[in-house]
Amino acid sequence: MTNSQTMKNSQSPDVADRSAATLIELVDLQKHYHMGTTTVEALAGVNLKIHPGEFVSITGASGSGKSTMMGILGCLDRPTGGKYFFDGEPAGELSDRQLAKIRNRSIGFVFQTFNLLPRTSAIKNVEVPMFYAKRIRTRNFALEALEMVGLAGRAHHVPAELSGGERQRVAIARAIVNNPKLLLADEPTGNLDSYTGAQIMMIFHQLHASGVTIVLVTHEPDIAVQAERIVQMRDGKIVHDGPVDPAKRVQAMEETRRMAEEKQKRLQANS
Amino acid sequence: MFYLRIILTSILSLKTNLLRSLLATIGVIIGVAAVVAAMSIIEGLTREVEKSIESFGSNVLQVFPGAKRQGGRQVGEVQTLSIDDADAIAAQCPAVIRSAPEVMGVATVKFFNKNTQGTVLGTMPQYTEIRAYNVEHGRFFTRSDVKSEAYVAVLGHKVAQELFGNGSPLGFVVKIQGKTFTVIGVMEKKGTIGFTRVDEQVIIPVTTAMKRLFGYRNIHSISAQAKDTHLANEAQKQISTLLRKRHKTPPGVDDDFAIFSQEQISKSFRETSQRLGLVFYSIAGISLVVGGIGIANIMLVSVTERTREIGVRMAVGAQRFDILSQFLAESSLISVVGGSIGVLVGVGFSKVLTGLSANMLKVYVAPSAVIIALTVAFITGMISGIYPAYKASRLDPVEALRYE
To answer: I need a labelling partner for B48 at 20 to 30 A (CA). Which of A8, A38, A194, B257 fits?
Structure first.
């Protein structure tokens, strides 16, 4: 799939199925850390609902609590107060085992630092979530996921042989290979130059268009406005939650598309 | 299927840190090789010695001069046995059918320009019956030869061959310690009796050996043959009573002789070999423990180094138990691979040892030794892997993902 096709899809976000059910619901969510004698309120009462098919950006300065929120949304961490329902399940009360299962089947993670397994080929990296889902005959599914991010041709390269953008695409393939309900991306373009970052964003738009719910944590305004909705955090609280101005969004996406295409052209010229 | 893949994953991650994995393996290799070699040597020794003990004859008793004891401490040997004692045993102990005195000495045996170093045994004609050890050519000496302190010799098979080659030595004279003896017989090929290589022995009348050759005043031992195997204990009691009477040992005082039966020698040998075994196994065991500590150390480093990888695996859905299994698989793999190589090294070492000793020490590699060593190595790997694996499985995914 080329980038221009992707663009066409993501220009009509309402195509996505938006049922009334909520995928994520936070009720007065709190997370406290003890550091020595003081208690840090990383999250101080957060209320948030995210519906299936939404594309939400979470922004805020460092220390605003957005990373803590990522950990809890991703079922990697438990809140110290309040409630978190993931797909109707009270995630705060589930066992480690159940949380691992949710992460495995229902959540895909994309990290700023890619977090691929070193010295392990791209395709093997993509197979890891299926491995823990105890699925067999995973090769073809992994290859399909790599095809979706345009990396089928580099399936047998190890991360050290891949560029930053390629590594992040492998990470995305890994995140989507178990068909998750939620894609959680933590500064996915933070370690990439803006052209490569634009390519990654195009993949997110494409996934969103195909119905995947995306929550993207970023402090870059250019990236944040490409979502449908922005949640802004400060000092562990949500200070703003609203839809993105459609005009601004279209403009940002146009720019992203232009940069992604330019990068593509440069790559083709080089090869 | 899933666990097969866990193992494959472990192989992969051990391969990525090949040098480190090898270093961890070496500890186990040395440990297991030590265990296998120790067990093989002990087993080989035991088999050899037990064969010797069997050749001793189950109905033969051996009487030695006893140790003089003072307050429980041994203060040298008492030379109390005489030829008369030997004769009296056969004459007065109903359970004993025959007995013979024995004296031993090492001497150079010469025939013209050829000479060989041999053991000279001085005894009586009934020796051949007691030991079921017969003359092949010529004859054995007689009672009258003993009485007359004759200079006659019967050569062991090997001695005859070394001095005379294939020719017959009968009627020729050999020089023993410079004294001239006439060869009257050659013994059959026998190998060993007890711990003595009889083929390298020259047998002469006991009186000649004591008075003419070595100047001994007492004999070194008495061989006594019980009428039947099941009478061996009875014979032992009778000999003991007789000798105490003859030596006028007051009641309450220890015997001034010691009687050994095949059973007793086996028993005391087994005790000794068990004690020796314990020492060997302790040393081998310690090296295995050291190997295990090596694995634990490497695994701890590995867990710390791969904290982030563990975080990623947890993020994409690994259960804590999956992480635990993977690290346990890695440590077990190190121990199993190391154990297998260790077995090969241990067996190889044992073979080399057999070769170096010119087959005198026949090392025996028992299958049970291999199985025991491998099992112990596997358990060592599991135990040393448990703590690091547990530590890995208890990592907080958020912290692990943030770990630099």
So the answer is: B257
